[in-house]
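JOB MANIFEST
job_type = single_chain_structure
chain_count = 1
residues = 54
[input]
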Amino acid sequence: MSDNHVDPSGNTEAFRAFTQNPAPEAPAASKTPLIIGGVVAVIVIIGLIVWLAS
């Protein structure tokens, strides 16, 4: 008589491995807009200081 018992551990193990893998991370956002904004802010502040000093 053959054994018809199917061990689900293979499928369960594969499912757990699939669900526990971290999702691929999104690419990091570009820092260019932040740098440009900082440079513009510094220019505006320097311009304001020069305008107030004159």
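[summary]
The mean pLDDT is 81.
The helical segments are 9-20, 32-53.
exit_status = 0
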